[in-house]
């Protein structure tokens, strides 16, 4: 194993550790059911956000 391989492996291990520390969420079965229902529900457009995203940005060179 080269020094580069070692450093790459250690960086990946450290990154995995950070992700796992922040990504795991515990919840009850009832809470999990509510979570799944919420993420499976189709999204609803928020009119204010739709209007905001239609605005021309100052750095755009495209004519609308």
Please tally the β strands and state the result: 0
Kindly name the structural category.
mainly alpha
Overall mean confidence score, pLDDT: 88
H/E element string?
HHH
Unreliable segments of 5+ consecutive residues: none
What features would you describe in this structure?
The chain is an all-alpha fold and 64 residues long. It has one domain (3-54). Helix content is 64%, strand content 0%. It is built from three helices and no strands. The radius of gyration is 22 Å and the shape is flat. 0% of the residues are buried.
Task: Explain briefly what this protein structure is.
With 64 residues, this protein is mainly α. The chain contains three helices and no strands.
Keywords:
64 residues, mainly alpha, 3 helices
Topology diagram in text:
Blueprint: H1 3-23, H2 29-40, H3 47-54
